[in-house]
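Tutorial, part two.
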Amino acid sequence: MQDVKKIVLAYSGGLDTSVMSKWIKETYKCEVIAFTADIGQGAELTGLREKALSTGCSSIFIEDLKDEFVRDYVFYAIKAKAVYEGHYLLGTSVARPVIAKRQIEIAQQVGADAVAHGATGKGNDQVRFELTYYSLKPDIKVIAPWRTWPLKSRTDCINYAKEHNIPVTATATKPYSMDANLMHVSYEGGILEDPWSAPPEDIFTLTKALENTPNTPTVITVSFANGVPVALDGEAFSPVGLLTKLNEIAGEHGIGRVDVVENRFVGMKSRGVYETPGVTVLHQAHRALETITLDREVMRLRDGLSIKIAEMIYNGFWFAPEFQAIRGMIEGMMHTVNGDVKLRLFKGNVTTLGRRSPNSLYNEQLATFEADQVYNQADAEGFIKLNALRLRMRPNG
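Running the prediction step on this input gives:
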């Protein structure tokens, strides 16, 4: 057991961390300070202060990180086209580094020599939290109770809570676990562990079922400056305000649900069900604008990096030197991504209707199928023959 004097615990107020705050204090005989990041989980923040103090924490920091989360993390993932294994938009993965970063800052502020988290020894979050901790403060001590304590299951935690009069709302029959923030809501575990079983309709909180969505489409215009969404239908919004509004509009039309079996960094496959309505719209709008504002080879370079970026985010390497190097490259590509994209939202689909930009590389005179004076079609013959040279030189058969 590590010798620690003061611990900052990443605290959600749910079953795991409510039990942990008590267990850590009793096990390590030290002060425990709770830290909660407000990244848009809403009602989950209600009553946290009282709960933390009643379960052994000496104090609690509840930090509003919503603006930083959306501006510096969510919007970057959109600019980088970071999508893990073709489907997952990384709502949980993107949230962990902003939480862990602030946790380390608070640990330094209060003079703590250790930090703790509630991630299990099977999941990805333990890696994301701890790689961030060690990147920002290499000598920090890390407490991960799920890897060391005698409690082995959710039922054990519930029983521990009852024995120690810890108020929790969880029950042994809860059919799944969920994690919410401004970017998405994720669902996993329990009844979702069978990849053949469809998720129950009543689990979803951000998006409507298609049969309950409006029968009339909604047309919106999203405006970007340097690759960042800044306005909706001509009205300027803050990052948080814009994403919140888009979540409402897109969720009404049932947009942004995905059901995937993904490869965890620790080696196993895991099923996740996700709702990401607003960011689904922003990904498509951003791509549409890029098609007229990014040079072909620049776009291909970025697209080639996107898979690597998504893997680094998923695996927890946000603060690794290679990620920071690539991040600077992506940001440099965004200076021309300015303009507007018109989209139709309807029955779970996002359809691009138009795009325009002061930096557009699209030349109607070049692209036209009508007569033009700027492109000599006869030039294509030499271009084709040069590209065919190596093909024609191959032996027959």
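The chain has twelve helices and 14 strands. In part three we will examine how such features are distributed along the chain.
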